[in-house]
Amino acid sequence: MLINSENIIDLDCFVLNKSVSIQEIDLGCTKVYTLDNFYEKFEHAHEEMLKLPFCPVHKSDNITHFDGRSSYAYSMTTTECPLTTQYKSLVAQLAEVCVERVECKDRILFNAFQFTTEWFDYQNNWYNIHSDASYSDSSNMISMVVFMNKHYEEGEGINIYEYQNKDNSEFFQPKENFPPLYTLQAKPNRAILFNGHMPHGPCIGTDQFTKETRYTQVSFATIQ
To answer: Quick one: residue 43, left, alpha or beta (phi over 0 = left, psi -120 to 50 = alpha)?
Structure first.
């Protein structure tokens, strides 16, 4: 063996399950789609994700908390990830548009988050409510989050919030000021697609991620 296999990422594991279960949820002001059994080989995808190094973001100190992102961008033939083409087709299918109108960058992205209760009072606050910025018009951004942990406690997931002209620039927001419009319970290999213009953020309802790292995969697409 010339190169240690632990240093070689297998991109072919990031393939959608042919029997993925899709559910449409109409929230009135927007629609969200949940997808169960997202990856065909979830355990393998989880292992390959961990090979990518994470870079800290939001000034995380890796003592009181860690918030980071890993990524792989591909620009050569045979180094592409199947997910990009499949994600374009999925967005086109759900939005009922031709796939040529869907654009997304050739990359895979993962987020990692872990915290101490001294830093984050998860019982009374939400963390990092935000909207996803688009490189064109944010109103046509389609975002996807895939839950990449192998188990989740009840009360962990993602929140979608009603779009309001409130100041949500602070990382901690009192729960009483930002009631979720919709909460999706996290499950391994579950994904959610939604309008990235809608404010959203992690639903942290337990101390699970004081003891282990919360992993998600994120993808973004725009419809032209």
So the answer is: alpha
More confident residue, 113 or 2: 113
pLDDT at 31: 94
Please give the model's pTM, rounded to 2 decimal places: 0.94
Query: Please, which contacts does 17-26 make with residues 24 or more away whose CB atoms are closer than 8 Å?
Result: 22/94, 24/94, 25/182
The secondary structure of residue 89, as a DSSP letter, is: H
The DSSP letter of residue 54 is: P
CATH superfamily of 13-223: q2cbj1_9rhob like domain (2.60.120.620)
The SS3 of residue 99 is: helix
pLDDT (tens digit, 9 = 90+) per residue, 11-38?
Answer: 999 999 999 999 999 999 899 999 999 9
Tokens at 182, concatenated = 């919709």
pLDDT at 16: 96
Decide: helix, strand or coil at residue 86: helix
Domain range summary for the chain, segments of one domain joined by +: 13-223
| Spatial distance between the Cα atoms of 9 and 206, rounded to a whole number of angstroms | 32
